[in-house]
Design goal:
The chain is α/β, with parallel strands linked by helices and about 230 residues long. About 35% of the residues lie in helices and about 15% in strands. The chain has a 6-stranded mixed sheet with strand order 3-2-4-1-5-6. Strand 5 and strand 6 form a beta hairpin. It starts with about 20 loop residues before the first strand and ends in a 10-residue tail after the last helix.
Amino acid sequence: MAVSSTSVSLPSCGGSYPDSDYAEIFVVRHGKTVWNSEGRVQGQVDIELNETGRKQAVAVANRLSSEPNISAIYSSDQQRAFETAQKIAVKCGGLKVVKDLDLRERHMGDLQGLIYRDLSKTNPIAYEALMSKDDRELPGGGESFTQVFERCKSALLRIGRKHKGERVVVVTHGACIETLYKWANAKGSYAGKIENASVAVFHLYGEDNWTLKMWGDVSHLNQNSASEGHTTSA
């Protein structure tokens, strides 16, 4: 299934619950942080939302509150994701946010805390590993892309199987969302930018049959003037 790499407007999916044959999962990237603004590698460093990020979290929460019968909200335990998820939970009937460590950002090893544009100079060895076509683990305890993929896929499968016939929200990070895109759209185009507080929609049929229904919705940010300075830093 080919999907455009550009952001698309996401209309309400409507209905009380999705079809009983699948789980409908809204996957949300966390709001913006100071390190996003600085172009700094976050990885699994626990950075909180900044003022813009909190506004983005409220905007995506308002957006998702229009979806009827959201039954559960899951989140990475990293505070930038968890705070975003809490904003959504308040707007969606006060649901409890379930933390799932498998939804964490990719561990970026020795690159964490460094400025992206300077990586080739500040840590050329780790940068070479990051850019390698061999998909290596990153120096300093960092994960390979495949490791992130397996971890995030495991989380989404577990959530999807538990909530078949239901509509749920998952708040996570850029690298995790990128792996899910490639999983559901293996023969499609590059995912493109994964904006802060953007929304994607996946359907899980059966045990592991994934369909990507919508991708990269940021219309709620444009409406709420919360989209200034989007970055794709992890």
